[in-house]
Structures are given as structure tokens and as C-alpha cells.
Amino acid sequence: MSTVPLSAQLINLFASVILLLSFAMLAQRRVLALINLFALQGLTLCLSTLVVAVTTGQTHLYWSAGLTLALKALLLPWILHRLVRRLEVKWDVESLIKVPTTMLVGIVLVIIAFNVALPISQLSSTISRGTLGIALATVMLAFLMMITRSKAIPQVVGFLAMENGLFLAATSATYGMPMVVELGIALDVLVGVIILGVFFFQIRDQFDSLDIRHLEKLKER
Amino acid sequence: MDFFVLTLVIPIVSGLLLTVVGERAWAPNLNIVASLGTFLASALLTVEIVANGPRFAFGEAFFIDSLNVFFVALTAFVGLTTSIFSGPYMRNEQEHGKLTAPRLRLYKSMFQLFMFTMLVALTTNNLGILWVAMEAATLTTVLLVSLYRTAASLEAAWKYFILCGVGIAQALFGTILLYFAAERVLGETGNALLWTHLVDVKGQLEPTIMALSFIFLLVGYGTKVGLAPLHNWLPDAHAEGPTPVSAVLSGLLLNVALYAILRCKVLADGAIPGGFAGNLMMGFGLLTLVVAAFFLSRQRDIKRMFAYSSIEHMGLITFAFGMGGPVANFAGLLHMTMHSLTKSAIFFTVGHAAQKTGTQLMEDIRGLIRINPVIGWGLMLGTLAILGMPPFGVFASEFMILTHAMKHHPWATPILLLALGVAFAAIFGKVQPMVFGETQAKQLPHAPAITPVFVHLAIVLMLGLWIPPYLTRWFHEAARMLG
Fold first, then answer.
1. Across the interface, do B154 and A116 touch by the CB < 8 Å criterion?
2. What is the pTM of this model?
3. ipTM of the prediction
4. Please, is A198 exposed, middle or buried when counting C-beta atoms within 10 Å of its C-beta (0-12, 13-18, 19+)?
5. Cα separation values, B97 from B90, B146, B168, B239, B444, Å
6. Does B208 touch chain A (CB under 8 A)?
């Protein structure tokens, strides 16, 4: 066995932490704790990008690490916290399916993700190529979270976690997308969360609750 | 004067301006003037591109060729007619107490910003920016779909945001994979997402990655096109949003999303041997066509029904582009034009009809021809046109698609004919009693703007009878570009 360089080991470590946090988010029932987990995931993502940046000397990766830190670890969690306080969301998050079942489905998804990513990782020459499977798994777990949650804010956290997974994919398969694209994506995410914030107030004014089970009236009869 | 810069600058400046000035008596006119300016600029841009060939703008950031300039012109034109239509329509909604002045202001500024995002998506050379602009187009319209703040419209907007958000996340993953494939050939120069660079090396892109990438891109952007099985957001958003928004969503946004798929298909075709991308599109197209056709007969809400009709037509167009080749591509482009013009005209008349009768339920709309013959005939002719009756242009494009399918993919012909037949029976059977029959409708405080309807239908009719050679050349050029 050839020895794996320290940087690659660090990247793999951070990627595993991101995956673990995805599972933690899947299991977390409280909305504030969920947002904190999301902030932690953003922070880990920033650290892993930073390691790739230091190892490869790609200057624009420093910028995207900074962007991740500012947006995903600080600004978005702050906005979400404020929203939760302003909306006076007190109740706990509840899952439509029981947590253990969700976990088992999640494990199956991870296995699928690793199998899909395998042929692509083999073609990749980047230092962090091993994490592509993890990135895809994070996307799929976030997707699962959106499906199983019945409240609006956890769904949005799931949506943002999906963005995290995609970002991890971008740094692991390639060394990040061109800067202008990353800035555009960050802007979209930020505007999206702000618009959703406005939207939450509209939903609550209409239904006195953020339970999206109120939003299941439009169906084919 | 650079007409391209004007085409982009007018909508964004006017969008911001409309936010600042707020809801004044002349704000709708400002909206119309801005749209007119965008349209004139785009028309002059078209003339320039057709005369001088493709060109770049701002370095290599934007690329305009005969394919996308065609969409730019169409987008700006429908944007103009929609802004004319929405003036009196929105005033009526305000008088009915459905909308307040701040919301009208939100509507107008978001409308212009929506036009801006679509024009950026169409003209950008960077596939990453294309994604960013598509997402921004969703964001600008979410608050428009929920403009009435009713329970149903909030639900529709939520569904629209989440489904399109998830869908477009798939497209981002596809874009990342595409970048990964391109970087191996083009190196880390930052050019690896520029379409003009990609198209030069499309034969060298790794086929396995490109196949996976195209699947993600097709599913992702396909969600916005309304391809089954991810079409659920579309009928809700169309039915619950204000009618001008339904008209631009149906007539323009779906086209722009399909355009994104077409650009990616050119790359996938170059990289993957054996027509993989085309077959995938044909499959999705047929599935969408059949699903939509059978849902049509079950609809009770008129805007919902025509939303399903949009899904049906998008399926047919996707199928046409999936077949590929100059004839099918030509037919696909022609059908996109016809569908945009006809469907937005239908939504204009439907909007007025719903205002007059105070309902969107088809069983309660009766005898339009007696209260307002113009609206009645507009709806009837629009319906006949969208159903592909000669001599309207939709007939010409559908005929071309069908004959091409018969020649090259005979197995698909019965499915196509069945779906089109079912759709015809469903729509015609419901529109006929709405137009003729007894009535109980009321007078509106503001006379409806009916000119846009007949302008659209007249163009569709003209293109069905005679396509100017200038336009034919242009379509051929664009179809050739798609390979």
C-alpha cells in the first residue's frame, strides 16, 4: 500500500465529517439544532476547500473557501435563526417517516451514490477525487431530508444542504468552478433564501403555521 | 450603438426604475415603453446577426448566433405584447380588490427582471452563467406566482420553488460534470465552460462522463421545461398566478429552459456516439406528450387545462429535437415559435374571459361570444390554432414533425397521433360550450387590451400560409447549428 499524503487524508476526513453531518441532520428533530448542524457543515466544507487550496496553490479556491465561510457558515444560518425567532417557530421538527427507517434508506442511498461516482472518480486526477462519492451521497441525503420533512424550514435547510453537496462535488471532481459562476451561484442562493423568508411570512399569515401539509390541496382530481 | 447591450440594459434598468417610482398611473406605460425598447433593440440585433453572422460581446462572455438571436427576438416580442395586455388586466384585478398597489409595483419590476434573466440565459456563452440565470428566472417569478396571496397561490409558488429548485440542482450537478469532462481537454483556463470553446472540442470529451452529465442536465432543465414526470409544478403555477405571468411562463420560460437543453445536446451529440442524447429526449418527449394528453380531459380549471396543453406541446417539441436532423430541428424551432405566440394569445383571452365571468372553472364560463364577440372568437381561433388546425402555423410544424417521425421512427407515429387526437377531443369539447351557449357575464371597468391576441394569431396564421424566405433562411441556419 502506498502512503496517502497528509493533505489527502485531511480532505477525506473533512468529507467524512460532512457525510456524518448529513446523517445527523437527517436524524435531528429540532429546528434550531438543525440550523446549527447546517452551519457546521458549511464550516467543514470551507475547511476542506481550504486544504485543497493550500495543497494545490489554486488562488481562486481561497476565495471560494472564504465565500463558503461567509455565506454558508455565517450569513445563511444567521438569516435562518432570525427567521425562526421572528416567526416564533416553537414546535419540534417531525419526520413523516420514523428516523431509523430514514437512516436505513440513507445508507442505501450512500451505497448507490458511491457506485454512480466510481467511474467518474477513476477518471479524475485531482487530489480530492475520492470525495466525489461523498458529495453525491450528501446531495442524495439532502434530497431525502426534503422528502421526509413536513415543515417549511427543514425543507429549506435540506435544499441548502444539497447546495453544499454540489459545491463539494465541484471541488472534488475539478478544482472548483470558474469564479464568476461561483459568485453567481452564491448570489442565487442568497436571494433565494431572502425570497423564501418573505414567502414564509406569507404562508404563516395565510395558514397560521408553517406546516406544509397545508400546501397539499392542489391535486389532480 | 450596440443593440445587444441595449437589449440587456433596458429590462434591468427599467426593472429597478419601476421598483423606485412605485405604482403611479403611468407605471404600466413605462412597463410597455421598456418592453418596446427591448423589442426594438432585439429586432435590430437580429438584423445585425443575420447580416453579419455570429458575434461575441464583452470578451467571450456573451455569444449571439442565429439560434439564440431567434429566441431573443421571440422573448422580447412576447414580453412586449404581455406588457400591453397586462395594463388593463391588472387594473381590473385591482378594481376587483384582488391586488393592491404595492403588489402591482412588485409585479411590474419583477416582470422586467424576469425578462432580463431570460435574456441573459439566452445570450450567455458560459454554461455556468446559463445555470445561474435559469435559477434567477425561477426566483423572480416565485413571488409573482403567489401574487394573489391566496392559499392556493401560496401552495403553487411553494411547489414551484421547491420542485424547480431541486430540478435545477440536478442541472448544476450536470454542469459540474460537464466542466469536469471539459477541463480534461481544455485545461484549467476558465474557458472550460464557454460553449464556443466546448463545441470545438466536443469530439474529445469523455463519453461516459458526458452521458451522465447529459442525463442530469436533461432531468434538471427538463423540470423547468415541464417534462414528465417532474411537471407537477407547471399546472399549479399557471393556474394560480396572474394571467400575464401564466402567459410568459408558458410562452417564454419553457422555451428558454428547452434552449438550455438544446445547447447541451449539441455537446453531448458530439461526444457520445450512437444518438444517445437524441434517444433520451425522444423518450422523455413522448412520455410527456402522452401523460399531458390524458390529463387534459380531467381538467376543470381553464388555465390548468391550457397549462397541460403547454406540457403536451413541450413534449412534442422535445421529441422533434430528439429526432434531430435539419428537418426535425426546423420543425421544432417553428413549433416553439408557434406555441409561444398561440399559447400566450390564448392566455390573454382566457384572462379576460375569467375576469368577465369571475371564475376560472370551465363549467361556469358560458357564451363568451354573446357578451364579447372579440374575446369569444379570440379564444375559439386560438384554440383551433393550438390544436393544429390548418391553416394556422401549428399545423405546418406538427405536420412536419409527424411526417419526419413516420419516415425515420415509424414506431412513434401511432403514439403521437393518439396523443394529439386525445388532446384535440379534450380541449375542443371544453372550449366549444364556453364560447357558444348561454351567458351570465358582467361588464369590466377597463376595456380589455385585445390587440395582442389578434396580432399573435395573425402571425401564426401568416406563418401557416406563408413563411417569408428571410425567416426560412434564418430557421435553416439555426437548425443547422443544432446538427
1. no
2. 0.93
3. 0.91
4. exposed
5. 11, 16, 35, 19, 13
6. yes
